[in-house]
């Protein structure tokens, strides 16, 4: 088993994920895995970084596919005995003018952004080694969507005692409410992406709390973040940041020094903790 440190980035064949891998290849003292769902797109991205003189490694990972997640888990366990850095970056967003029915958008968006990310965490967090760093890429849209929720929902999502099971039930309820056409009546905002990212931010707060309760001595730091508005296929060419600039906050959180005990369980944007 290798004693080399290892970092894993999800959804890294393009956009912010690729830029995070680029930065980690330069700054992380160990193996860096560019993971993505399509091996062809992954190998092309690896080749691009190799042309820049970098040496990322590749592993397939479709966060919608539990078998794929478990194959990566077993690989990391066997080869490295765990992992040191996990960046949950993979995500999707329907375009604003997409005519797909809202209930379908809700189901598809929540499936990847919330349930897929949660499945990766469920399988990989137990493998994270002492002083490990976990970064869940959320969005400022999670904050604005939170403000668009009913007072009752806001209270639940801000609660310091909400459980993962309760959060999962709420995310599933959102999808069901959209199917029944009652999501606004039930206090939800009109954004599937926003609700999925509320899920990612709240999940991060819960996971950080559980780390405090169960593994305090391991000094693992876990945070959610917003990369900013970044020029990628998701956000389009008018966004203000380049992908490398968008990678800065996630990479800062991924490389928090072993002497750091904060931030932890926070929502971070521009390397600054934001109120939730
Ligand atoms: P992007 O260019 O569209 O890249 C998204 C990445 O996620 C792609 O590599 C995509 O793979 C991957 N992905 C989607 N579904 C996946 C799955 N089931 N399994 C594995 N990978 C999957 O978007 P981006 O702008 O770089 O976004 C990266 C993250 O930042 C997302 O979580 C996004 O919500 C967040 N974010 C972006 C912005 C922004 O302004 N761009 C702002 C706030 C937050 P394929 O190529 O195979 O589709």
TrEMBL record:
- UniProt superkingdom: Eukaryota
Q: Which GO terms describe its molecular function?
A: carbonyl reductase (NADPH) activity
Q: Name one GO cellular component term.
A: cytoplasm
The protein, known as: carbonyl reductase (NADPH)
Q: Which InterPro entries does the protein's record reference?
A: CBR1-like, NAD(P)-bd_dom_sf, SDR_fam
Q: Does the keyword Metal-binding apply?
A: no
Q: Does the record bear Cell division in its keywords? A: no
**EC number(s) stated in the UniProt entry for this protein:** 1.1.1.184
Principal location listed in the UniProt entry:
cytoplasm
Query: What's one Pfam family here?
Result: adh_short
State the similarity comment: Belongs to the short-chain dehydrogenases/reductases (SDR) family.
Arranged from A to Z, the UniProt key words for this protein are: Cytoplasm, NADP, Oxidoreductase, Phosphoprotein
Q: Quote the subcellular location field of this record.
A: Cytoplasm
């Amino acid at each position: 088993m290798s004693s080399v440190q290892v970092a894993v980035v999800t959804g890294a064949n393009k956009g912010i994920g690729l830029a995070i891998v680029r930065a980690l290849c330069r700054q992380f003292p160990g193996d860096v895995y560019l993971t993505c769902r399509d091996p062809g797109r992954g190998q092309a991205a690896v080749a691009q970084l190799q042309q820049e003189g970098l040496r990322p490694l590749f592993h397939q990972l479709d966060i919608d596919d539990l078998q794929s997640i478990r194959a990566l888990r077993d690989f990391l366990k066997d080869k490295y005995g765990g992992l040191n850095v996990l960046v949950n970056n993979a995500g999707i967003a329907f375009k604003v003018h997409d005519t797909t029915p809202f209930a379908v958008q809700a189901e598809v968006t929540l499936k990847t952004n919330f349930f897929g990310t949660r499945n990766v965490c469920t399988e990989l967090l137990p493998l994270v080694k002492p002083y490990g760093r976990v970064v869940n890429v959320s969005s400022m849209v999670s904050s604005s969507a939170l403000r668009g929720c009913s007072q009752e929902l806001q209270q639940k999502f801000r609660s310091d005692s909400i459980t993962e099971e309760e959060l999962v039930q709420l995310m599933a309820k959102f999808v069901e409410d959209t199917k029944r056409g009652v999501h606004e009546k039930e206090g939800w905002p009109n954004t599937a992406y926003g609700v999925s990212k509320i899920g990612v931010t709240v999940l991060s707060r819960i996971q950080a709390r559980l780390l405090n309760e169960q593994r305090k001595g391991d000094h693992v730091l876990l945070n959610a973040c917003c990369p900013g508005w970044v020029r990628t296929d998701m956000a389009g060419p008018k966004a203000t940041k380049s992908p490398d600039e968008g990678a800065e906050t996630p990479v800062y959180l991924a490389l928090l020094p072993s002497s750091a005990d904060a931030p932890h369980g926070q929502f971070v944007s521009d390397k600054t903790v934001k109120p939730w």
